[in-house]
Design goal:
This protein is of the alpha+beta class and about 200 residues long. About 25% of the residues lie in helices and about 25% in strands. The chain has helices spanning about 5-10, 80-90, 115-120, 140-145, 190-205, and strands spanning about 15, 50, 55-60, 65-70, 100-105, 130-135, 150-155, 165-170, 170-175, 180-185. A hairpin with a 4-residue loop joins β2 (about 50) and β3.
């Protein structure tokens, strides 16, 4: 494994415990560096998934403009919706003339997150207007998660209505027009204000 991969995996151990436990927070690494120094060519890669309209899409469909990628799931009680609301708030604070990136939610819960479930979820008025939801087979989700060094785990919660939840890495990945990682944001370490400032620096023409 390359040194940068080892470093990133250590940083990406920031797992959101949607089961109610405290997240494991990163204490060092790229998340604490300047937003313009968090680009690693090893992060991100090709994928084949299904969008909320039931259409097969690949990374090629998102090339041509920047994309902000987040891994989560629709049954997530607070972290995922809170993160998406935070993204929306950041977009509202972008400098004049800076267009927000395409926003992509990739589900780590393909069992429940059908295209129909995602379509209802991404249409929330609290989320970014351009939010696209992607799902797939368990194998497809595992493959794209591996490309982004995303960890996720099913946690059984038999006492709850949902019966289980998903713990997952909570990072936001800014991909450029060529689907190359430009920077990333760690949930909990990036306020909407800081995100807007960083995006303004990177997306300004």
């Amino acid at each position: 494994m390359k040194p940068v991969q080892t470093m990133f995996l250590g940083m990406a151990a920031f797992l959101v415990a949607c089961s109610g436990e405290q997240p494991v927070k990163t204490t060092a690494g790229g998340a604490l560096a300047s937003c313009t120094t968090r680009a690693y060519e090893e992060i991100g890669g090709p994928f084949t998934l299904t969008n909320q309209d039931g259409e097969t899409v690949t990374e090629e469909d998102f090339k041509g403009k920047p994309s902000l990628v987040y891994f989560g799931f629709t049954y997530c009680p607070d972290v995922c919706p809170g993160t998406l609301v935070g993204i929306n708030n950041a977009y509202r604070q972008l400098p004049e003339g800076v267009e927000p990136p395409q926003t992509i939610l990739i589900s780590v819960d393909p069992e429940r997150d059908t295209p129909e479930a995602l379509k209802k979820y991404v249409n929330s008025n609290a989320f970014p207007d351009n939010l696209v939801g992607l799902t797939g087979t368990p194998e497809q989700i595992a493959a794209v998660a591996d490309e982004f060094f995303v960890g996720y785990d099913r946690i059984e919660t038999p006492e709850s209505a949902g019966e289980y939840t998903m713990d997952h890495t909570s990072l936001l990945y800014l991909m450029d027009e060529d689907w190359q990682l430009e920077t990333f944001f760690a949930e909990g370490n990036s306020s909407p204000e800081k995100m807007a400032t960083c995006l303004g620096q990177l997306l300004r023409d």
